[in-house]
Specification:
The structure holds 2 protein chains of 2 kinds. By secondary structure, chain A is of the alpha/beta class. Chain A is 45% helix and 13% strand. In chain A, strand 6, helix 10 and strand 7 form a beta-alpha-beta unit. Chain A is globular. Classes of the chains: A alpha/beta, B alpha/beta. At the A-B interface, helix 1, helix 3, helix 11, helix 12 and helix 14 of A face helix 3, helix 11, helix 13 and helix 15 of B.
Chain lengths: 352, 361
């Protein structure tokens, strides 16, 4: 079944939709892994694995989107709802810098009352006080901020960039297939809108990452469609820095169900590496997979271990409980024959 | 496309021809980081022996006592008799525990405990007869070689007679624990009170001779060298040539937490997967290689089904020993989840009894 695909790969021909679906139908984990690893070695011949020291700061959990796969959000007025104060925010950033952090990843719920001025002030406040890269606001947040402030997406992105926004995280992509989004996140932005935000962002020089959340109700065809849509946009803009597939965590969510397996994760990671020929970097998700599978992921196409995650709240709310220190991360990278390298947001090595 | 790298092609040739690997081959495999080459070879043997089947068992663990005269450095479970938290179960406690598991349709009791200084041999015999009387259908896999050796001293009987008495009372088979790593250097450092390689193998040989099947294990990821791992595997392979009484081999990942070796790190995913796969390749006369999900996690256990493994143990209700050492895995997995895990990995789930007969549902 895979012979024709293998031939295409050998001749460095681009794979299409059918090829992608056939790869997903295969159960030959070793073959898929080997192909992905060969591609990864070609792209990254230097024997290194990168990681970033950063902190996830979730400025609020108040959200009007109420996605069925989410265990983090609260409604306005809930006793567990919060919005971080400036002091709390600055304290978290100070701690991040003390630990050698170079970036904060800021994301939050879609707050019903806050307009663009709030976000601009937040960004400027941080930039005036700290030398740190701000990777913030996934497309659903950008669209929400634009809507609430009666601004075009382009204008919103420009103003946020001028206020200090450095790049955009790839969250909220879930699966970029419309019918499916209606079922799992009916209020969240459409697939088209998500792609549009990324396109506008890339155009004005804001780079971003892309993600895929899989292992819920999507089909293999949906996964392939997702991958091909972001590949197409990457052809146009070249603005994606990395791709990060992660698995749906089911605890405490409306969607529920059994969490996706280690087998499916490694397979999906490998196929992502194979299909996304115009993405340079693929990240392993130790937060959802744990250190053991994340280490194996480095043989299945991933060249980056993501963040040390000084703090993470969203995945944790849905039952994942993995923790990893920088030392552990470095030692598991070395154990499989790579040199660990701390990087910045744009995958440049940080000279220590 | 070539899966196996050039450096390991000679070993692949042997594997394809069904030739036995040397100790040097084993050492080369352990020293390689090429997980795909190793996995590919392990999978050839796995599919040759077991096709597409992945076995599991519905079982429950009973740890009758944690009181132990040995002081193994890698153990977080054992207690001295007067320690707070020391316990031993009465026969009635054990039966009660057994009754709790009945609803789950278990087919096996897996019973191991510490080397208790005072419990008489009769206690163990009565444990067997009482369980058999109340649960005649349930197979009893009990007492590692280390316990058997201890019981023979308490009973004042030879190993063979001890085994025969236990068998008569209802013992069905013997688990593979207590093997650790056979190297005398390792044992001198970590578990000097425990029986050595020769005695462990002698107990297993006697068991096989009187018709008691057993498993074998290796506790890896502490102070042992690659060479010592390979020597361990080769010693098991030699005994299996003679008796054919081993059913499965189970590599056990060392868990350092709460042990006297807690300065060591846990095993890595790569080492776990490699150790499972290399065991499959080296132990050409073992029908089954088992991944114990309690120790390496369900995700990796599932992945290992592509790397030589044909058995992922079972529901394991109430595992205590690995959890004393900080295992963060669940203490139980449902039959449905095991089946789902196996199917997702493209294998055919087969529920087995202890002796690898297929259970008809």
């Amino acid at each position: 079944m895979l012979t024709a695909i293998l031939k295409k790969i050998e001749n460095e021909k681009r794979l299409g939709f059918e090829d992608g679906v056939n790869l997903f139908k295969s159960k030959d984990l070793i073959l898929l892994g080997r192909i992905a690893d060969n591609i990864r070695q070609k792209l990254h011949p230097e024997k290194i694995v990168t990681f970033i020291v950063d902190r996830n700061i979730n400025y609020t959990n108040i959200c009007i989107s109420r996605c069925h796969f989410c265990a983090f959000y609260r409604e306005l007025g809930s006793p567990e709802a919060y919005l971080l104060s400036e002091e709390e925010l600055y304290k978290k950033i100070e701690e991040t810098l003390e630990l050698g952090g170079t970036q904060i990843l800021m994301q939050g719920g879609l707050h019903p009352d806050l307009g663009i001025n709030f976000y601009e002030d937040m960004l400027k406040g941080i930039k005036n006080r700290f030398k740190i890269h701000i990777h913030a606001f996934s497309p659903p947040e950008i669209i929400h901020i634009a809507g609430i402030s009666h601004l075009a997406i382009k204008e919103t992105l420009k103003r946020l960039k001028d206020a200090g926004l450095g790049s955009i995280p790839g969250g909220g992509a879930e699966i970029l297939v419309e019918d499916l989004r209606k079922k799992i996140s009916p209020v969240k932005c459409t697939a088209e809108e998500w792609l549009q935000v990324m396109k506008e962002a890339h155009k004005i020089g804001l780079k971003s990452s892309a993600t895929m959340m899989f292992g819920h109700i999507e089909s293999y065809e949906d996964r392939v469609n997702h991958l091909l849509r972001i590949r197409k946009l990457q052809d146009e803009t070249g603005g994606f820095i990395a791709f990060i597939p992660w698995t749906f965590q089911s605890a405490n969510t409306k969607l529920g169900g059994e969490p996706v397996s280690g087998f499916d994760y490694l397979k999906t990671l490998a196929i992502s590496r194979i299909l996304l020929d115009n993405f340079r970097n693929i990240q392993a998700s130790w937060v959802t997979q744990g250190p053991k599978v994340a280490q194996i992921a480095l043989s299945f196409g991933a060249n980056d271990l993501g963040s040390t995650m000084i703090e993470e709240n969203v995945v944790r709310a849905a039952g994942a409980c993995y923790r990893m220190s920088r030392e552990e991360m470095e030692s598991l990278v070395k154990d499989c024959g790579f040199t660990p390298v701390q990087r910045d947001t744009f995958y440049n090595a940080i000279k220590s | 496309m070539e899966i196996v790298s050039t450096e390991l092609k000679d070993i692949l040739k042997k594997v394809e021809k069904g030739e036995r690997l040397s100790s040097d081959d084993g050492i080369r495999l352990f020293n390689s980081k090429d997980i795909f080459s190793i996995g590919y070879m392990a999978n050839i043997i796995r599919e040759r022996k077991n096709g597409n089947i992945a076995y599991f068992v519905t079982n429950a663990h009973i740890n009758y006592s944690n009181i132990c005269v040995n002081r193994c450095q890698f153990c977080a479970f054992s207690k001295e008799k007067d320690d707070p938290g020391a316990y031993s179960m009465t026969i009635e406690d054990i039966l009660k525990k057994g009754r709790n598991f009945l609803e789950q349709d278990i087919t096996e009791f897996h019973i191991v405990g510490g080397l208790h200084p005072d419990l008489p041999f009769n206690y163990y015999l009565e444990m067997m007869t009482s369980l058999k009387k109340e649960f005649p259908e349930i197979h009893i896999q009990a007492f590692t070689a280390v316990e058997i050796s201890h019981l023979s001293k308490i009973a004042g009987l030879s190993i063979r007679d001890t085994l025969l008495k236990l068998k008569e009372a209802g013992l069905g088979s013997i688990p593979g624990g207590g093997a650790e790593v056979f190297s005398s250097r390792v044992r001198e450092n970590l578990c000097k009170e425990k029986i050595g390689k020769d005695e462990w193998l002698e107990v297993m040989k006697s068991a096989h001779e009187v018709g008691i099947k057993s498993n074998a294990t290796m506790l890896y990821g502490h102070i042992e060298t690659v060479k010592e791992r390979v020597e361990h595997l080769v010693a098991l392979r030699e005994l299996q040539d003679k008796t054919g009484g081993f059913q499965s081999f189970i590599p056990l990942a060392f868990h350092p937490k709460n042990t006297r070796l807690d300065n060591l790190s846990s095993t890595t995913g790569l080492d776990d997967l490699k150790t499972l796969a290399v065991s499959r390749i080296m132990l050409d006369n073992f029908p089954h290689i088992k991944a114990f999900w309690i120790m390496i996690g369900t995700k990796l256990a599932q992945v290992s089904l592509s790397f030589g493994i044909d058995d992922i143990d079972g529901t394991v209700m109430e595992e205590k020993i690995t959890h004393s050492a900080g295992a963060s895995t669940a203490e139980y997995i449902s039959r449905n989840n095991l089946i789902r895990m196996i199917k997702e990995a493209g294998r055919e789930p087969v529920e087995r009894d202890t002796l690898y007969n297929k259970i008809k549902n």
